[in-house]
Every structure is written in structure tokens, then in C-alpha cells.
Amino acid sequence: MPQNTSTKHIEALIFSSVQSISVQEIVLALTAVFEQEHTETQIFESLNEISEKYSDDSFVIELVNINKGYQFLTKKNYHQTVNQLQLHRSKKKLSQAAMETLAIIAYRQPITKLEIEQIRGVNSDYSVQRLLEKELISIEGKAETPGRPILYTTSTLFMDYFGLNNLSQLPQLKDITREENTIGETAE
Description:
Helices cover 48% and strands 13% of the residues. By secondary structure, it is an alpha+beta fold. The protein folds into 2 domains: 3-78, Winged helix-like DNA-binding domain superfamily/Winged helix DNA-binding domain (Arc Repressor Mutant, subunit A), CATH 1.10.10.10; 93-179, Arc Repressor Mutant, subunit A (Orthogonal Bundle), CATH 1.10.10.10. It has a 3-stranded antiparallel sheet with strand order 3-5-4. Strands 1-2 form a two-stranded antiparallel sheet. β4 (137-142) and β5 (150-154) form a beta hairpin. α5 crosses α7. The mean pLDDT is 87.
């Protein structure tokens, strides 16, 4: 197989891989498809060609050697733009249940999952897990109560997402209470 074709197949492998791909994985894939042995030296030559190609300013991505493998990543000049998109998308994907759970944690932190569930009245396993994955909350430690349950607090990423310098900037609950949520007549 000509080197040019090999390089294009390697480029396709790197492009389609969600994580970094090792030289050994590239060798295995090419050998399986073309039933012809490929050496690591050939792979490194192709990787150098690909790296050189993407070093041109006309490309917004570059080939990066990361975690003993290779991956296409956005060049540093575009990190802020891509970060804004990621922030926007991650904000949009919080469910109503996750937002309720996040609000409870923000106002009552540090708080255990049992306390969250007592306030919400439903199981909150999924919401807590989702918020941990999105790094909007973090584990602060364990409570000094029987069973030593985990304590949850908001993270620095939470503060960044909501544009807060400190928790005192959260809206006061009395400021966001609606009349339709009250029972009985209001005293004057």
C-alpha cells in the first residue's frame, strides 16, 4: 500500500477516535484491513506528515501526542470560542430535576443526598450523578452522622457558569417567591 494511502487511513483513524489512539492500535487496524504488516516506523512517518499538514494556519485543529497516543484537538487560538459553545450546551442539558437538585445544594450546602431527597420528595440519585459528571457540584467530605453520608457542595465551575463571585450573590429566596405559590392571604 502506498505511503500516501496509509497516511490518509491513519488520519481517518485519528479523526474517528473519541480518545487518543496509540501507534499499536493504528498498526493493528491497518494490518487487519489491508492484510499487510505495518511497522511502527511507517506509522511514525505518516504521523509526522499529518502533523506537518495540520500545522498550517489554514487548519483550526492540530495533531497532538497525548496520553501515549494521538488525537486531533482544536488549536489554542480557538479554545475560548469552543469553550463558549461547550458552556452553552452544558447549560441547556440540565433537566428540571437536575436544576431543582442543584438549587437545593446551592442554598443548603453542605448537604447529603438523603436531605436533598427529603426536600424534593423523590429519589435524586440520577440528578446528583449528572451534576457530578458536569462538575457543577463536588464532594466535600462525609457527615459526622451515622453511616457517614457524603456531603455535596457547589463547585467552582458552578460559580463560573452562573457568574457568581461568592454564594452570597445567589438570589435570596424571599426575592423569588411568587404569589401563586403562597397559601392563604398575605398579611399587610
